[in-house]
Write a structure and sequence with these properties.
heterodimer, A: alpha/beta, Rossmann fold, four-stranded antiparallel β-sheet, 7 helices, about 25% strand, globular, B: 2 domains, ten-stranded mixed β-sheet, 12 strands, binds adenosine-5'-triphosphate, binds magnesium ion
Chain lengths: ~240, ~375
């Protein structure tokens, strides 16, 4: 019996645009178990990022229920959500989003500053995370001195440094060349297989999706049933 | 909070040019502000030095331009609390070409009483003796002696204007007072008086009095003015400090003037730094979204952004106070144009107020942009591309 980590029921998100309301996500119900590696796919504008943001509690749903790691996200205050995300979620962006003024080590250490950890302990953890992604030699480099692939690896180190239960990635290979993309996917697979992290990854790339243990498709804001693909989806 | 300091400092200096410009503008304004506050303090708040607190000036109630009679002097000396009193005759006139750099104050006095009233004047016994025993002798303050290159034995001619005579003097002493008197010259009233025609003699512009102690000031002032209440020429007696301030007052409302410049400077620098901070925060919108994704709360982000402004404004303030101290040193050693700047300094209280104003500028200028940025929804921040 697997432990359910993410559970949504009729999750809906609407955005107001001018006088219209656009439903970016309609009645999505999904269940993701501990240790799953799920890829979210679908055409542009189908609501993939919207769903991921709701799981990360970076946005609040318009309707429906969402429980992640046993928390009812709708009932948490903004401050509590921030602390919850710091402790339990590692987020990886398509465009890396490292802070340009900080070194690789400082970037990775950043989420630990919110914990009670002492400086020496934070440095040790951050160093270890960077070694894990193969950047043990680049601790003092700033983002400008790194390649895109290296930047994304720093971002992965930053996402895992707090040892979160959940890793969420929005097109993590979208800005990378083929070789770097392969490295990043390999790392995610390792995190999933060897460290037991639950991973949800949005991707456009069918090849990337093969790294995941399962794929779910979205179309026009609707989450398709397991196994179903959008019509004229050529991949 | 200390763990965020490296990030705050790195952010504060990330845009070198903007940081430098902000620092320069805050430092310049605070230098100006610090100097003005030091001036204000030295005019209106400084502790009156011991020697000065003992002195009163007696003049004609109508105005400084109206003289008193020499015959008042013995009567003043009799007033209870008066230790010593002497003639304090301002000799306007001109020296050489009368350029600003050649201007200094000159007074005709009773030389033997002078040193009892001005115990802070320091000069050698030989020079004092020479001054006391020669009718045309004069002593000059060290600053003026230096700047006009006057030496012992030099002959100096002062051309009269109020007094229709020229006085020819010989420098017999160079004294050091540590006050504005370092730019003054003193010579014998008798010599001046005897140079005048019979009908013009025996008038005195002002008398200077040394009292028992500062605490008797009010009683002695009243004693002297009461003495001449029914005389043809009534007197106005005031402390030396008040007398000096009345010169300043002739320049207009100095207090309001200084305060309004201070306020204008503060306001301007507030606008400048406000604009800078708004820019600095705006170009970091996306990073704020990233920090929030990592779990930073709006409160911490507010602290980071306001802290950054405080680091900048405090650094600028410290630089400014340092520059103000330099400016005061320059003003102290330069010509004083009548105001006593010898005690001018950036006192600890002025530094405290200056740094307080710096911090306030940093706080106010960053509060609104920082607050707005810290409350903006994560996704909205992340969508911004800089
Ligand atoms: N803040 C917003 N305001 C208005 N509309 C929005 C907002 N965010 C998303 N949308 C709309 O919601 C829909 C779903 O957007 P979402 O970003 O989830 O799509 P996506 O599947 O991630 O697309 P892509 O593959 O292009 O990233 C789109 O029609 C988008 O225009
Ligand atoms: Mg998307």
């Amino acid at each position: 019996m697997s432990e359910v980590v993410i559970e949504t029921r009729n999750l809906t998100k609407e955005f107001a645009r001018d006088e219209f309301r656009i439903a970016a996500l309609k009645h999505a119900s999904i269940q993701i178990n501990k240790g799953d590696f799920v890829a979210l796919m679908g055409p542009s504008g189908s609501g993939k990022s919207t769903l991921l943001h709701l799981i990360a509690a970076m946005d609040r749903p318009s309707n429906g229920d969402i429980r992640v790691l046993g928390e009812d996200l709708r009932s948490l205050s903004d401050g509590a959500i921030a602390r919850w995300r710091n402790a339990h979620v590692g987020f990886i962006f398509q465009s890396f989003n490292l802070l340009p003024v900080l070194t690789a080590l400082e970037n990775v250490e950043l989420p630990l500053k919110l914990t009670r950890m002492a400086k020496s302990e934070r440095t040790a953890h951050a160093t270890k995370a960077l070694q894990l992604v193969g950047l043990g030699e680049r601790l003092t480099h700033t983002p400008r001195q790194l390649s895109g692939g290296q930047e994304q690896r720093v971002a992965i180190a930053r996402a895992i440094v707090t040892d979160p239960d959940l890793i969420l990635a929005d097109e993590p290979t979208g800005n990378l060349d083929a070789a770097s993309a392969r490295d990043v996917l390999e790392m995610l697979v390792t995190l999933n297989k060897e460290f037991g992290k639950t991973i949800v990854m949005v991707t456009h790339d069918p090849h990337s999706a093969k790294s995941a243990s399962s794929v779910r498709y979205l179309e026009k804001g609707e989450l398709l049933p397991p196994g179903a693909k959008p019509v004229d989806w050529d991949a | 909070m200390i763990r965020y300091l490296p990030l705050v400092v790195k952010n504060a200096i990330r845009n070198r040019r903007r940081t430098a410009l902000t620092l320069v503008s805050v430092a310049t304004s605070l230098c100006l502000l610090g100097t003005l506050m030091a001036l204000y303090r030295s005019f209106f708040y400084s502790e009156t030095p011991e020697y000065q607190a003992h002195r009163l000036i007696v003049r004609n109630k109508v105005s400084l331009a109206n003289p008193l009679r020499l015959s008042y002097l013995p009567l003043i000396r009799k007033v209870a609390g008066v230790q010593e009193a002497t003639i304090y005759q301002f000799f306007a006139g001109s020296y050489k070409d009368d350029t600003p750099s050649e201007s200094f104050a000159r007074f005709a006095v009773e030389s033997e009483r002078l040193f009892r009233i001005f115990p802070e004047f320091r000069l050698s016994e030989e020079e004092k003796y020479a001054f006391l025993h020669e009718r045309t002798a004069a002593i000059v303050g060290i600053k003026t002696a230096r700047s006009l290159n006057m030496k012992l034995g030099d002959r100096v001619t002062l051309r009269g204007d109020i007094f229709p005579v020229n006085v020819d003097l010989i420098i017999r002493g160079i004294f050091q007072a540590g006050t504005a008197d370092d730019e003054s010259m003193y010579f014998h009233y008798d010599y001046l008086n005897e140079s005048l025609r019979a009908g013009e003699r025996d008038t005195v512009g002002a008398f200077i009095v040394r009292m028992d102690g500062p605490e008797s000031a009010n009683a002695v002032i009243k004693g002297i003015d009461d003495q001449f209440r029914n005389a043809p020429l009534q007197t106005k007696t005031e402390t030396e400090k008040a007398f000096q301030l009345s010169f300043l007052a002739m320049l207009g409302n100095v207090k309001a003037f200084l305060l309004s410049i201070c306020a204008a400077v503060t306001f301007t620098i507030l606008l400048v730094t406000g604009n800078t901070m708004a820019m600095a925060v705006r170009e970091r919108t996306r990073e704020v979204g990233v920090l929030k994704t990592l779990g930073f709360t709006p409160g911490i982000i507010l602290g980071l952004l306001v802290g950054e402004a405080l680091v900048l404004s405090l650094t600028g303030g410290l630089l400014g106070m340092g520059l103000a101290a330099l400016a005061c040193a320059v003003l102290r050693s330069g010509p004083s144009f009548g105001a006593d700047l010898s005690q001018l300094a950036v006192a600890p209280s002025v530094i405290a107020i200056g740094l307080g104003i710096s911090l306030m500028i940093g706080f106010i200028s960053s509060l609104i942009p920082a607050f707005t940025a810290s409350r903006r929804p994560i996704l909205e921040s992340l969508r911004v591309n800089n």
